[in-house]
Amino acid sequence: DAKTTQPNSMESNEEEPVHLPCNHSTISGTDYIHWYRQLPSQGPEYVIHGLTSNVNNRMASLAIAEDRKSSTLILHRATLRDAAVYYCILRDLWTGGGADGLTFGKGTHLIIQP
Amino acid sequence: ETGVTQSPTHLIKTRGQQVTLRCSSQSGHNTVSWYQQALGQGPQFIFQYYREEENGRGNFPPRFSGLQFPNYSSELNVNALELDDSALYLCASSFRDYTDTQYFGPGTRLTVL
């Protein structure tokens, strides 16, 4: 899977929007962009994924740049419960469901201030 | 819908011993993956099982082995434990499709003394 780059940490205030960036300049045409998050003392949790178009679900929105070399996970109204490590992961369409597992980097540690 | 469960929650072993960790997959999922997460690091892929066969492996030695059962529960076995094996071990279940969305359990914290 292609490599992603994320800031080590970000800080935001409760009830404000949070924009978590991810750079993936070597993304291929068949790479899906996945986001997972890991709350303290828990296993990772799927957040959202997309290929080319922006995506929304109940947890977050994913904005994908037109050239697909970067993406942004948007939490519209952060709560204290959103404090977690957020991982941006690329997953090839043809190996998704394949045998190489997810490649996690160090992710972005999101701190939410009350 | 039952989520992914793992047992035990915590485990302490000594160097050289063997350990078995257990995972129960989410209902309807036919694939299970195991990951090792050292403190302060992201999870690292150990291996994946699909329909009871090992389907892929990360950069882990053969003393890490596994089993998947017909009811899609699974085990991770580690022989000849080393101090560096101390970590959080996560299992994740999925339905094998092009998205491969994985659903993780809470993990087993293994400490090797």
Describe the structure.
- The complex is a heterodimer of chains A (114) and B (113).
- Chain A is mainly β and 114 residues long.
- Chain A is 0% helix and 46% strand.
- The mean pLDDT of chain B is 93.
- Chain B has 113 residues and is mainly β.
- The chains are: A mainly beta (114), B mainly beta (113).
- Chains A and B meet through strand 4 and strand 8 of A and strand 4, strand 5, strand 6, strand 9 and strand 10 of B.
Brief account:
Chain A is mainly beta. In chain A, a hairpin with a 5-residue loop joins strand 6 and strand 7.
The helix/strand series of chain B, from N terminus to C terminus, equals EEEEEEEEEEE
Number of helices of chain A: 0
Strands of chain B, total number: 11
Could you tell me the strand content of chain B as a percent range? over 45%
Number of helices of chain B: 0
Helix content of chain A: under 10%
Distance between the termini of chain A: 37 Å
Number of strand elements of chain A: 9
Radius of gyration of chain A: 14 Å
Q: Would you tell me the structural class of the helices and strands of chain A?
A: mainly beta
Rg of chain B computed from alpha carbons, rounded to a whole number of angstroms: 13 Å
What helical percentage do the residues of chain B reach? under 10%
Shape of chain B: globular
Termini separation of chain B (Å)? 38 Å
Which SSEs are present, and which pair or pack?
The complex is a heterodimer of chains A (114) and B (113).
Chain A: E1 9-13, E2 18-23, E3 31-38, E4 45-50, E5 55-56, E6 61-64, E7 70-75, E8 84-92, E9 108-113
Chain B: E1 5-7, E2 10-13, E3 19-24, E4 31-37, E5 44-50, E6 53-57, E7 64-68, E8 73-78, E9 87-94, E10 103-104, E11 108-112
Parallel strand pairs in B: 2-11
Antiparallel strand pairs in B: 1-3, 3-8, 4-5, 4-9, 5-6, 7-8, 9-10, 9-11
